[in-house]
Amino acid sequence: MDLDEQKRLAKRALIVGGLFALAVIFFRLQSRGLLIAYVLMVGVLLVLAILLQSSKGGGLASLGGLGGDSLLGTRSATPIAKATYVMGALLLFICMLLARLGVPQQTAPVGAIGREEPAQTAPINVDSSRGTGQPAGQDAGTPVAPAEDAGQQGGEAPSPTTQP
């Protein structure tokens, strides 16, 4: 291995290490939004790298023994294929970091739909001598209005029926 090849490998290792280190930095900062944006960006780049690769004709058929090549192919991987492997590993790594952060706790604001508020009720004063409960602010001697007749609707007066 000559010096130029060692420099190229070191440069590639530094780039790949930097991509993984960036994910770890976002994780340490507890920045869920940055991690989600990063995983989306890597996912889009991964899809593009997969689409850029030329088809070899075997596809999934080679897994069942129908193809003449070995499982990973007989020739060396192209730079796009190597980048695809790295981005796939990076995508899985970022997803594991996101799962490690856990699900954020969501609290509904006051008055939001779905959040139950306690019912507002008026306190009741209990007159121990009479044993009746009256709403607060109403004297015990004040009569309570009678309930409407069940036959009447909406407080309408019954119409008189006249027969000729």
Walkthrough of the structure:
It is a single chain. With 164 residues, the protein is mainly alpha-helical. The protein has a domain at 30-54 and 78-101. The protein is built from three helices and two strands. It has helices spanning 3-28, 32-52, 79-101, and strands at residues 124-127, 132-135. A two-stranded antiparallel sheet has the order 1-2. A hairpin with a 4-residue loop joins strand 1 (124-127) and strand 2 (132-135). The radius of gyration is 38 Å and the shape is elongated. It starts with a helix and ends in a 29-residue tail after the last strand. Mean pLDDT is 75; it is low at 58-62.
Element pattern in H and E: HHHEE
Number of helices: 3
Instruction: List low-confidence stretches.
Output: 58-62
What proportion strand?
Answer: under 5%
What's the rounded overall pLDDT mean?
A: 75
